[in-house]
Amino acid sequence: MQRACFLLKVRPERLAEYRERHRDVWPDMREALTSTGWHNYSLFLRDDGLLVGYLETDDFAAAKKAMAETEVNARWQAEMAPFFEDLDGRPDEGMRALDEVFHLD
């Protein structure tokens, strides 16, 4: 199982709404994430807008590609794009992946 972590930056003036949107993620979006291999997926948000995403998957590149091909993801990304800073395109295309340097089993 591959562990993946990524960063994005939420606009400070949109933090409250971003949190609210994630309290009730669409059921079809949740199903798409699961069916395309996104497991144990979490988002962490710092007060300055730093967003950290973490997930476990068999193949992160394949999971991102499969998710990008879903209709619900296109709708979700279009709605979420205005929440982020420093993006050219969709949020799922702007994720900055981090290298894992340590893991305690």
Automatic annotation (TrEMBL):
Stated name of the protein: L-rhamnose mutarotase
Gene3D superfamilies the UniProt entry points to: 3.30.70.100
Highest taxon, organism lineage: Bacteria
A Pfam family per the record: rhaM
Source organism of the structure: Nonomuraea marmarensis
InterPro entries: Dimeric_a/b-barrel, Rham/fucose_mutarotase
